[in-house]
Amino acid sequence: MKTLTILLLGAPYSSQYPEFAVKLAEAALDKGHKVNIFLYGDGVHAGMKGQTPKAFYNIEEGLRAISKRGATVLACSRCSAARGYVDGEFDDAAQRYPSSKMIDEIRIFSLYGFVDFIRESDKIITLGGV
Amino acid sequence: MSELPKKLLVMIIHPPYGHENAFAGFFVAMASLSKGLDVTVALNCDGVFTAVMGQKDTEALLHLPSIEKQLQDIIDLGGRIVVDIDSAERRGVRPEDCVEGLEFVPQEELAKVINDFGELMVTL
């Protein structure tokens, strides 16, 4: 088993990167690998609650599904706060920033969470942000 | 025998200020250096503009952190910064106009850096 980390920079629906990130994660999980996803910059919008795309793949459902299968998904706290996702101070017990707008499967955490992902990764792929 | 620190390559291809990318990449580099990772930053394409010395008071003028200060912080934390000399020349960015401590390298050397860092690379 190897560990894949995906750094997702792109927001959902404006590009296909978030969908590709979820599909790539599914494929890696299918092959028995460990998967981490770090939502960075506009990528944090991928974790927003209540997405209802009419014609596109639903990124919220995709992220919930891969989390259920064991993928770890973190969202950058600085990026999330800037975009209105953070409701209060860091919760030490839960090891996350509280958010009523982000799906529960995603933990809002500092950039050091990504550094921890790097430490355990065999491969990092950056998607979006162009 | 202690394990060697994990190596990370942060490739910056966007210019400063107009996009969030360069800031975001430098934050990753600084966080990784502060946690003991072996970090190299590569400035390529429009990313070479981040290296220009004498950037004005960006916090006052643009409400944005100074990219120049971020570069200096990375150097002070022990990070290596390489600049693609070909990208710099095409954009009129000369080594003498840039922050001290950068390595201007030909594309063959940049390719070697990418090869050496293998699988752990982020691009912003």
Explain what the structure shows.
The complex is a heterodimer of chains A (130) and B (124). With 130 residues, chain A is an alpha/beta fold. Chain A has one domain (3-127): DsrEFH-like (Hypothetical Protein Ychn, Chain: A, 3-Layer(aba) Sandwich), CATH 3.40.1260. Helices cover 30% and strands 19% of the residues of chain A. In chain A, helix 1 packs parallel to helix 2 (59-68). Chain A starts with a strand and ends with a strand. With 124 residues, chain B is an alpha/beta fold. Chain B has one domain: Hypothetical Protein Ychn, Chain: A. Chain B has helices spanning 21-34, 58-62, 67-76, 85-90, 107-117; strands at residues 7-12, 38-43, 80-84, 103-105, 121-123. In chain B, helix 1 (21-34) runs parallel beside helix 3. The model of chain B has no long low-confidence stretch (mean pLDDT 91). At the A-B interface, helix 4 and strand 5 of A face helix 1 and strand 5 of B.
Count of separate DSSP helical elements of chain B = 5
| Helical/strand content category of chain A | alpha/beta
Total number of helical segments of chain A?
4
Number of strands of chain A: 5
Q: Strand share of the residues of chain A?
A: 15-25%
Low-confidence stretches of chain B: none
Number of domains of chain B: 1
Please tell me how large the radius of gyration of chain B is. 14 Å
Total strand segments of chain B: 5
Secondary-structure element order of chain B, N to C: EHEHHEHEHE
Q: Averaging pLDDT over every residue of chain B, what do you get?
A: 91
Describe the biggest sheet of chain B?
A: 5 strands, parallel
Strand order of the largest sheet of chain B: 4-3-2-1-5
Element pattern of chain A in H and E: EHEHEHEHE
The greatest interface here is: A-B, 18 and 17 residues
| CATH architect. name of chain A | 3-Layer(aba) Sandwich
Strand content of chain B: 15-25%
Write down the CATH class of chain A.
Alpha Beta
Assembly category:
heterodimer
Name given to the CATH homologous superfamily of chain A: DsrEFH-like
- The backbone outline of chain A, from C-alpha atoms, is globular
